[in-house]
């Protein structure tokens, strides 16, 4: 009979390395975790990987294989007091029995800096073997001193082939799985579960278990799963996304680079991924405004206005309709002519400021609203552009130390080609005045 009070994902959790499916890059013969488990050469580590990739299971297997005490804590529900109590017990147990203690911290990224710092001396002295599990990039979430004392191991999302093996095991296991329920699931049902799971074994098993429990037996005593039942079990597809972590940066990077490379199709896909996963659309809008100046600039001056219009339109009508305004802007930006001339020009100007400091404004272009300023030659010799042909006048506007320095070099693309021609004309007119 099914132990319905214990989730299927927990009941069939592998107990040995031989039963573990996936992560061959860490567990294959001669790989780092293979050595750790078989050679019992324990070291503190951070297991970084997506949900359902096997982080907790691996920690259990390492503890069992090394005959270590195993203490699991969650950073969500535990505080520094619980951690210190575990460490003190670990020190006492090591003296009394010689056995090491593996302290497993689930969601270690949720501990703040002070809490993480508390581990440092005990990890360094070997009082505990720390195994932290996180779905977030440790570079952002784990303090540098703790990172330097641990080995970060990256777990990959499980592939469909690996998930299929896990599902097959669950369906065929008579003791802890679903075999006693006489379940039949065709390829369409399995494919739907795999699509929904997105590499997460726990999601796959939970979906399977709920679908089985929702399916009545037929006249022959079988439970025949259907895609309709699985869809009901799923309820709502949840996309992998961590709005404050690495995936957040991965997806916005994918959108930015797809637009930069003039690919409207991929740009729309990444936009949809972010919105459907719950990203703040106004954050996306802000990135579109940035993109319009950074990667298009004056190659198409309308791009900035369109990005701003999309931001205002979304702010006005919200979701779901507002997503179309963002989509319209994304397609426009992706297909617009590209130039980073403004981006690089501003970078050159900033570099000049840092290198030369606060150079004085040339006297002839200073304003002279008072008699004293006039007596100090503020504005003396300034030539009013509108008194000259085409309002072009040859006079220096930069500090003497930077005279003649150029920062902006427009491209031969889009409207910047026109700007380039205009700049060439202005230079020619100034040379005529100089002669």
Order of helices and strands: HHHEHEHEHHEHHEHEHHEHHHHHHHHH
Could you name the CATH topology of the largest domain? Answer: Rossmann fold
Helix content: 40-55%
Radius of gyration: 32 Å
Tally of individual domains? 4
| CATH architecture label of the largest domain | 3-Layer(aba) Sandwich
The CATH class designation of the largest domain is Alpha Beta
Strand content: 5-15%
The strand count comes to 7
Q: Multimeric state of these chains? A: single chain
Spatial strand arrangement across the major sheet: 2-3-4-1-5
Query: Outline, from the CA principal axes?
Result: elongated
| Tally of separate helices | 21
| Global mean pLDDT | 88
End-to-end Cα distance, whole Å, is 100 Å
The CATH superfamily of the largest domain is identified as: P-loop containing nucleotide triphosphate hydrolases
Taking pLDDT < 50 over at least 5 consecutive residues as the criterion, the unreliable ranges are: none
Helix vs. strand class: alpha/beta
Q: For the report, how would you describe the main beta sheet?
A: 5 strands, parallel
Using brief descriptors, characterize the structure shown.
7% strand; alpha/beta; 21 helices; Rossmann fold; Helicase, Ruva Protein, domain 3; five-stranded parallel beta sheet; elongated; 52% helix; Zinc Finger, Delta Prime, domain 3; 435 residues; two-stranded parallel sheet; 4 domains
Structure overview:
This protein is elongated. The chain is built from 21 helices and seven strands. It is of the alpha/beta class and 435 residues long. 30% of the residues are buried. The chain is 52% helix and 7% strand. It folds into four domains: 132 residues, Rossmann fold, CATH 3.40.50.300; 75 residues, Helicase, Ruva Protein, domain 3 (Orthogonal Bundle), CATH 1.10.8; 90 residues, Zinc Finger, Delta Prime, domain 3 (Up-down Bundle), CATH 1.20.272; 76 residues, post-AAA+ oligomerization domain-like (Orthogonal Bundle). Strands 2-3-4-1-5 form a five-stranded parallel beta sheet, with helices on both faces. Strands 6-7 form a two-stranded parallel ribbon. The termini are far apart. The mean pLDDT is 88.
